[in-house]
């Protein structure tokens, strides 16, 4: 099971719980020190040292490199937990020419899923499909996503974040349409408001964290991810969940035509610098 964003928060909590339950977890993170610390914590939980890989999703070549390393090391990958993400005020386009939030929260995971597609297919059996679980958010409701130009410059961090989380749901819907027949079940979920590393530099989000009862722990946030990654009852292609139950998103995030257009434009976006 490959978990992106495994060096902190929801991804780390999921990796610890899954390793503790005996799963073979592979950690992806960006910050080397946090990743090393995550490896120690997962080792303590699972009793063996998990493999770990570093990649900054703001650089698509680093995603390509980690995809190549994973495909070299693993013949089968049964789950891709597509969880890495952030809220950032950086608006300068990435070296790949995209809005940084959209690249890190959507295009990076979209590219990685394509790079690992053969390994996911190899893991899929008739009674046990492979899974892609993506961490979205109710922030999808205010996203300003141009599905034909997902990487276009955004004007604020929250609009950019909402757009990227809309893209997570639309990608899940279109992946289900394209890849269910290959034995792969894509789902996505909202973890709740979680007291993690997320949003620490946002004064509004940091203030909200102080409100009693509003935020959940990373372990609670990871619960639906773990359920979607492991439970036979959670195999609902294209589904969007919160707290292990179906959750509703705005029509902009669930429209099949928008999903198809976003997919095509995202393919173009990840191929602009170098083809995969
Ligand atoms: N916390 C919430 O309230 C909340 C609510 C809804 C959805 N979410 C979503 O939940 C997911 C996990 O966030 P979290 O709450 O667990 O926050 P977190 O504690 O900040 O963890 C984020 C993870 O994503 C990784 N990441 C960030 N930027 C990256 C990049 N450029 N390249 C590769 N990896 C990168 C981080 O790596 P580093 O350790 O190297 O920074 C970290 O492992 C995100 O997709 C977020 O949008 C969170």
Task: Report the portion of residues in β strands.
Answer: 5-15%
- Named CATH architecture: 3-Layer(aba) Sandwich
Helix content: 40-55%
Mean pLDDT: 95
SSE order, as H and E?
EHEHEHEHHEHEHHEEHH
Structural class: alpha/beta
Bound molecules: NADP nicotinamide-adenine-dinucleotide phosphate
What would the CATH topology be? Rossmann fold
Low-confidence stretches: none
Provide a descriptive summary of the structure in words.
By secondary structure, the protein is α/β, with parallel strands linked by helices. It has a single domain (2-271), classed as 3-Layer(aba) Sandwich (Rossmann fold). Helix content is 46%, strand content 11%. The protein has ten helices and eight strands. The structure holds NADP nicotinamide-adenine-dinucleotide phosphate (NAP). The site of NADP nicotinamide-adenine-dinucleotide phosphate (NAP) has 30 residues, from helix 1 and helix 4. Pfam families: adh_short. It comes from Paractinoplanes durhamensis. This is Short-chain dehydrogenase.
Give a quick summary of the entry.
The protein is an alpha/beta fold and 276 residues long. It is built from ten helices and eight strands. Helix 2 links the parallel strand 2 (26-29) and strand 3 (51-54).
């Amino acid at each position: 099971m490959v978990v992106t964003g495994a060096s902190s928060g929801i991804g780390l909590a999921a990796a610890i719980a899954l390793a503790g339950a005996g799963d073979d977890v592979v950690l992806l993170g960006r910050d080397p020190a946090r990743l090393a610390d995550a490896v120690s914590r997962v080792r303590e939980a699972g009793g063996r040292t998990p493999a770990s890989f570093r990649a900054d999703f703001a650089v698509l070549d680093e995603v390509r490199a980690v995809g190549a390393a994973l495909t070299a090391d693993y013949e089968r990958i049964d789950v891709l937990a597509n969880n890495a993400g952030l809220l950032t005020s950086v608006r300068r386009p990435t070296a790949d020419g995209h809005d940084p939030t959209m690249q890190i929260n959507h295009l990076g995971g979209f590219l990685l899923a394509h790079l690992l597609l053969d390994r996911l297919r190899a893991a899929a059996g008739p009674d046990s499909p492979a899974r892609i679980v993506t961490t979205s958010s109710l922030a999808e409701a205010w996203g300003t996503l141009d599905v034909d130009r997902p990487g276009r410059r955004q004007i604020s961090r929250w609009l950019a974040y909402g757009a990227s989380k809309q893209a997570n749901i639309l990608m899940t819907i279109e992946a289900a349409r394209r890849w269910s027949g290959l034995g792969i079940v894509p789902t996505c979920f909202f973890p709740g408001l979680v007291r993690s590393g997320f949003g620490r530099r946002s004064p509004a989000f940091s203030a909200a964290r102080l409100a009693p009862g509003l935020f959940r722990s990373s372990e609670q946030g990871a619960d639906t991810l773990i359920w979607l990654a492991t439970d036979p009852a959670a195999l609902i292609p294209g589904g969007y969940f919160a707290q292990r139950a179906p959750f509703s998103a705005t029509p902009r995030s669930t429209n099949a035509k928008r999903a198809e257009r976003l997919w095509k434009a995202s393919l173009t976006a990840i191929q602009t610098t170098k083809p995969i």
